[in-house]
Amino acid sequence: MRKWRVMLLVCVVWLGLAGAARAQRADFSVGTIIAPAGTRVSGFLEVPKGADAGTRIPVTVIHGSKPGPLLALVAGTHGYEYSPILALQRFPAKVDPRELAGTIIVVHVANMPSFLGRTIYYSPVDSKNLNRVYPGKPDGTVSERIAATLTRDVIDRADYLVDLHCGDGNEALRPYSYWEAVGTPEVNEKSKQMVLAFGLDHIVIETQRPTDPARSVYTSTTAILRGKPAISTETGLLGRVDSNGADLAEAGILNLLRHFGMLPGVPQRVEHPIWIDRSEVLRSPATGIFHARVQPDQGVARGTLLGVLTDFFGNTVQEIRAPFSGIVLYVVATPPVSQGEPLGMIGHIKPE
């Protein structure tokens, strides 16, 4: 009898200590959103009015009951990229915060003006690309103020970041991700392990991103230059409500949580990654109409005809050809193009 009493006392003490530990884990706040340990709370980050109208950023905080890293997930940097936005709509409900180690900041739609305006690349308010203005300006235009808000309240708070993209409303795209090797060796290696854990087998090695934190330009680069491993991913195409693209994004996020030890389970890794050691975005030399001649994921030789740019009367302005042998990562598959805008992206596959 004495033995059972001792065991019962030990269990009671252990449960009490565990409960006390959970109770002692501090609340986590982002802006006005306050999440106690073991809860999931949603709200808005407010971007105040400046030279133009203000906006709001919908955010969910999943604050685990146990200590662990802070992972930031950002979707909707480009408002017409629906697959990752849809993935982050359904993802939070699949994570039990009572079982989570660490904290997740879910940015559902970073660029609300673009999302509600259904615009590709640019904000309908200031005609700027949110993914080209980081780390932003608190007193700038709305895109710059969004970037400044996300830098301060999300990126600077995070330990790791995933910037989730897909083919914009004009882009037919095969899934791939970016490994940005522009940080310290330690950050670069952690980012590499992240991209392998996310699970997309085509990986672009990016070494030409900015290295000045004050002019970081891109969401993921902003994190990396602040010492936080980060990756960018591309799943989905042509602004479609694409369940496959959303599924890929969601599966990648859940596997990353296992990779970081934030959720139980054995993480998977890409077994045979296809590394893209050189890539080039081809841009339109003029405003006109683009007629694509290739599909995403198509292999091309140097000089292969990728498409024909015509004027508005059907006259050929220029044939667009592959600058080197590789694979079509994406191609613009809708007719209108403006001078300087992308027409497609070719990646060279690194020899094994």
**Total individual domains:** 2
Question: Helix- and strand-based class?
Answer: alpha+beta
**Amino- and carboxy-terminal Cα gap:** 67 Å
Return residue spans where pLDDT drops below 50 for at least 5 consecutive residues. 6-23
Secondary structure: number of strands: 19
Query: Would you list the SSEs in sequence order as H and E?
Result: HEEEEEHEHHEEEHEHEHEEEEEEEE
* Helix run count: 7
What is the CATH homology-level superfamily of the largest domain? Zn peptidases
Fraction of residues in helix: 25-40%
Examine the secondary-structure arrangement and name the CATH architecture of the largest domain.
3-Layer(aba) Sandwich
CATH class of the largest domain: Alpha Beta
In percent terms, what proportion of residues is strand? 25-35%
**What is the name of the CATH topology of the largest domain?**
Aminopeptidase
Instruction: Determine the mean pLDDT.
Output: 93
Shape descriptor: globular
> What profile does the largest beta sheet have?
13 strands, mixed
Task: Characterize this entry briefly.
The protein is α+β, with helices and mostly antiparallel strands.
